[in-house]
Amino acid sequence: MASIRSCIEQQLNEIELLRCCYSSSDEFYLDDIEAFNEAKEFLNGKFDNIQRNLCFTLKLHLNDIKVKIFKKKKKTTSFNFISLDNY
Question: Whole-model pTM above 0.85?
Answer without folding.
Answer: no
